[in-house]
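Re-run with default settings, no changes from the original entry. Doing this only to confirm the output is reproducible before filing.
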Amino acid sequence: MKSGRACRLSVLVVLVIGSVAVLPSAADDGSMSREETLVDFDTQIIPILTRQGCNRGSCHGSAAGRGGFRLSLYGGDPAADFRAITWELGGRRIHRADVDRSLLLRKPTEDLEHGGGYVLDADSEAAELIRRWIAQGARRLQRRQLERVEFSPAHLRVERSGEPITLRATAHYDDGTSEDVTRWTAWTTVDDTAVRLDLEQHTLQVERPGRHLVLARFLDVVAPLEIILPYARSTDGTALEERTPSAKRQAAERHPIDRLVEERLAELGLKPSEVVGDYGFLRRVTLDLTGRLPRVDEVVAFARDSEPNKRTVWIDRMLDSEEFTTFWTYRVATWWRVRAPGRGRSRDVIAAQAFQQWIRENLERRRGL
């Protein structure tokens, strides 16, 4: 049987060992001090999956996924993506003990057969960032939230084709930090024959005149970038819009829609078309507002009308007509898909009819929809 002194010594040893056990190690202390270097799944890994096309609708972002692996479309649900990557299949997609054996790396680099082909260079910065994230424990830290993204250039007019234009994207987070995310942004062009993208150099070149759009996507932020190359310039270098008489008229003399159209034509270096004749005007207006061609009596009456503002008068007359209300009720209801979804469902039929009646009444009273 131990003496009281021996018992006290044993208790002291246990307390000392316990105290040492709970003290943070030097490595843990270093990890805490380097918290800012930890890879954030939501704002650093998800953009890689988006940029490489992994979560597109044609790949793992489809409703059914692909190859048994489903991601949210364009990273819209980071929590679900984190579960799919780290927990599904018993966590086989992540190998914390041997990072390079992770399916998340072996599949896109085609170290293993991949239905989507080769989409990630094993030596790239993106692959290295994924390795770091797995090596750090493949955690979802949620350190910060995206507030906004600035894409550049948002709008640009170039004077000649073939000149490289630098693309930039800067993300701003709720912790007050900002980061250049150009290399993690997915840049796509609506027409790759008109605009050529260099995703390695982050530049674009306009190949032909016109108004062109480039879509920029980072996380859930999508923005169009408008690039304009005018169609024509005069021999002395002066843009056509600087010479057209319509561009020199007082803005107050024109309708806001006309001003918008003329400003766009001027920006593109195009001359406005000549004012349409009476017969062409009546035909276009009648088709647009009532959905039919003008009747013979309307054509004769319009031709005989000598009032200088007869076009405005005829437009107002058609806007007040029953034909306008009926035609545009149908068009708006079609756009909004106002219809009963099935047969025998009287409640749906009544609801659709009520919605159509609401549209009709607002058109009759010239209210906004």
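Residues 225 and 285 are 34 Å apart (CA to CA). The two ends are 93 Å apart (CA to CA).
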